[in-house]
Amino acid sequence: MLETNADRSAQTRELVAVLTEIGWRVGASGPADVLADRVDVLVVRVGEVVVKAHPAESDLAALRARLRVAGSPELRSVALGPLPVEGEVVRSQAGRPITVWPYGRPVDPDDPDAAPWESAAQLLATLHATPVTHCRDLPAAGGPARVRRAMSRLRDAGHIADATAAAVVWRAFDSLPELVCAPAALVHGDFHLGQLVHTGAGEWRLIDLDDLGLGDPVWDLARPAAFYAAGILEPAAWTRFLTAYRAAGGAAIAPGGDVWATLDLPARAVVVQAAALVVATGRPLDELDAALVDACLRIADIPIAEQISSATG
Question: Which domain holds residue 292?
Answer without folding.
Answer: 104-313
